[in-house]
Amino acid sequence: MSRTAPSTAPEIPGLVYRQPLGSGGYADVFLYEQQMPRMPVAVKVLKRDGLTPAIRRQFIEEANTMAELADHPYIVQVFRSEQLADGGAYLVMKYYPPPNLATRAKRERLTVEEVLRTGIQLSSAVETAHRAGIIHRDIKPANVLVSQYGAPGLTDFGIAGRGGNQDEHDEDVGVSVPWSPPEVLYGQSNGDSRSDVYSLAATLWHLLVGRSPFEQPGGDNSAYALMPRIRATPAPQTGRADVPLSLERLLGQAMAKKPDARPQTAIEFARGLQAIEQEQRFARTPIVVLDESGHTTVADGGGRPAPEHTDHDRTSVRAPAVMSPQPQLPTATPRSADEAAVDEGPQPLTISGGALLAGVGVVLLALVGALVWAIGFRSDDAPVDASTDAPRASATVGGGGPVVDIPEPPGLDGQGVPGSVVFTWNYAGVRKGDFYRMRIAPSQAEVVDAEVTTVREMPHKVAAAPGETVCAQVAVARAAGATSAYSGIKCLQGG
Hints:
Layout: E1 15-23, E2 27-35, E3 38-46, H1 53-68, E4 78-83, E5 89-94, H2 101-107, H3 112-131, E6 134-135, E7 144-146, E8 152-154, E9 161-162, H4 182-185, H5 193-209, H6 223-232, H7 245-254, H8 266-279, E10 288-290, E11 296-298, H9 337-342, H10 355-377, E12 394-396, E13 403-405, E14 411-417, E15 420-426, E16 435-441, H11 444-447, E17 452-455, E18 460-463, E19 469-477, E20 490-493
Antiparallel strand pairs: 1-2, 2-3, 3-5, 4-5, 6-9, 7-8, 10-11, 12-13, 14-15, 15-18, 16-17, 16-19, 19-20
């Protein structure tokens, strides 16, 4: 795809030009100030040089597509578009201040919580596009803008397809190789919902690591070098100790070589990300999609049981059922209509007159039963795991869901011995199956960027000449996917 000369910012009624924002192969983006109401807007302008009917048609389709999806909170809003007398065209959009996510990922390490939240929000946008029959086909970090309130905005629908269909002009536009699935790169598919899921996962991987999944630091990362890796090399792990194994597995599945092995829809991928949020005790990010009538809705059950006829693959996420071992006591506390709407189960009984004594008896029996249940649960016949008596960082997630043990950061120590240094560590609540992730480097400053090594047991010995410095950090990891924060950095010298 050849680059053309930058276009000149056109004079647009009601807008005052301020400055350039960026440039692509076929269009430039400028910052304007709208005069009424006064606010900044981004204007995408087609370049005149190299302009073809196919490019002009793609630009018009982009405007129409983004306008069709403009109500979604995570899709960049289009205000208007116009074709100019000289054959050019422009698109007036909501302004998102720099940087985009590609630039942010280069400058800083995004947290796992932020990446999960962004992934769910982007998946919501992509699912909404899919339900409108639109495949994006160019999801990547550079096409995700960020509002001043931190919300992502998916943009650049220039090569989007309707239902995955592709016509004879699409080859003029091309795809972004580092984030595209093998079936698209090798012409086996024009793109569908599963190819967009692949690109979503590749984008999240990029946000975690700071580069695309198959890029090799210092190596040949041209399109011709990347394509064989994307086709044949399994998706690598991120190498970050704070990334849970469950997220590593989900990203690997979503970047599977065969489309059938991936989550089949963006909302399925989003629900997988929500499950990891729950596992890690992060705040739940809602999925926002269009419902069956074409209106934007929050696609979460919110813990309320859905009617049996509801199609859960469309707009709802059903919370796991919560089973309580203790009997529920009746209550006569009055509730508002809003509170009653949240609980669709049996309504509380109103106890009055002669029924009062009977009600008290029921309550007493229930309390006795609960006490007997509690005593029986702690009976000497119950198996006891001695390791669980130690303090631990754990929480019940999802209102009665499984207990997720988040290990505490370990304390790192060690000593130099002849020919090596030996690192040891300790932490409360040791569990069978715990393993460890270590960063090891020759200086304290290099540790945070060092390659992560998986260690199965301690102590851990590292070869070191007498007087040679070795620095390290360690984190505790669990088979269920929970990972502690890293320990402090410890530097030792070989003996």
